[in-house]
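Protocol step 4 of 6: structure prediction from sequence.
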Amino acid sequence: MEKRKKLWYWIITAVLSFCIFSGGLAQTVQVKEVIDGFKPLGYPVYFISLIGIWKMLGVIAILIPGFKLLKEWAYAGIFFVMSGAVISHIASGDVSVKIISPVLLAVFTVLSWYLRPASRKIISVNP
């Protein structure tokens, strides 16, 4: 069972990492289609680049070995960004297929966090 769990962890984490990193890169370099997608939400353009940079740094934190506490923060940050995207679309009345991607990525974030191997977890020991 442990092998299967580890395999699913890496599949889900690879898909999540690719999607978040590539989306973050597109936001950072301000691809026109990305900017157009943010317009209905009312966010300033500089905010788009800022979120993109944080997304890419979050993926790096999740993928590199060690830094267990940083990984926890990165998972939390990615989840907050994805759930915030869903809420932003709903609040702005821009509810369409655009919310499917952040919903799925939020689910993948939770699954990746849950399935991660013990070597990537903070394990507290009660004295």
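Step 5 (inspection) to follow. Helices lie at 2-28, 32-38, 45-63, 68-91, 100-115.
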